[in-house]
Amino acid sequence: MALITPLLAFLYHLPRVYQWLLRPYYVASLFMSVAFVLVRKSPGLCENLPSQREDGNSCDFDWREVEILMFLSAIVMMKNRRAITVEQHVGNIFLFSKVANVILFFRLDIRMGLLYLTLCIVFLMTCKPPLYMGPEYVKYFSDKTIDEELEKDRRVTWLIEFFANWSPECQSFASVYADLSLKYNCAGLKFGKVDVGRYSEVSKKYKVSTSSLTKQLPSLILFQGGKEVMRRPQIDKKGRAVSWTFSEENIIREFNLNELYQKLKKLPKGRVQDFEPKYENIPEEDASQTQDNGTEKVTPESKKDK
User: Fold this and answer.
1) What angle do CA 288, 145, 254 make, to 5 degrees?
2) Residue-by-residue DSSP string for 88-116
3) Which pLDDT value is given to residue 19?
4) CA distance 98 to 102
5) What angle do CA 299, 301, 306 make, to 5 degrees?
6) Is the pLDDT of residue 80 over 50?
7) Which of 127, 141, 243, 285 is the most exposed place for a label (fewest CB within 10 A)?
């Protein structure tokens, strides 16, 4: 069953995958992913390659190469269990195929290994995955406009994605977020995005790490009345992001999008009756500030009662 479900999903999205593979980035990635297989199986070239097979046939894989390719398949299957989009599935296949190719080429000939590794580095530096260009109801903010928009009309609830263009996770999540904006955008519920990789001041203010090893990209933050009430992924007491899957189902459930949409599809006059946020989901620092503020308000009243 674990094999059938991804296969059916791939076949269902095959026309879309075919369109992606026609783009230069994916064409180049495809050739680099199958480079070792092409070299090992190309007539006129494979005869001159070294082989550890007992029969000396250099045009077939030896037992160690088969072992590496099988291990690659197992790794890809494990990684793709957490993939939520076809882009992530295809990206994982390309990524780990290139890693396997580096190992196979170095094992075959150190010169071929260095050549292939150099090509991978050049490809990584010069080629970027194509950005999502489909339909969406998303407003893009800069470091100057995000605060202005949040304060402009406090009746509007904002779900804002903090992303970076260099992050593969953000690129894969783009289509999911766009679909959500098409389904749930209304007068009182709006969707926004801000590139924290470009605007470092925004990342510092909203405590979204942009480190190359960060697990906080993308981050989704829900704002009501201009203030943050919920975010995913959550940040623990040590400042580390709690692992969370950015699937459409998880986002709809955690942020109560169905309920929010029904309440806010017609922008009410005066103040919006916001839904009660789950305060345990607020980051630790914000939660402590809320408790401290609450204590300050209660103390004077208790003294008066006495």
Assistant:
1) 45
2) HHHHHHHHHHHHHHHHHHHHH-HHHHHHH
3) 59
4) 6
5) 100
6) yes
7) 243
Q: Give the whole-angstrom CA distance, residue 103 versus residue 108.
A: 9
pLDDT attached to residue 65: 86
Per-residue pLDDT of 94-123, as tens digits, reads 888 999 999 999 988 899 999 999 999 998
pLDDT in tens, 8-32: 655 655 565 555 556 788 888 889 9
| DSSP H/E element including 26 | helix 24-33
Within 8 A by CB and 6+ apart from 185, the residues are 137, 191
Paired residues of 271 in beta bridges:
none
Which helix (H) or strand (E) covers residue 292, if one does? Answer: helix 284-305
Q: Six-digit token pair at 57?
A: 């046939």
- Which of 20-34, 69-83, 201-215, 275-289 tops mean pLDDT? 201-215
241, two tokens: 């992001």
Cα torsion 281, 283, 288, 294: sign: negative
Place of tokens 């407003």: 139
Question: Which DSSP category does 68 fall into?
Answer: H
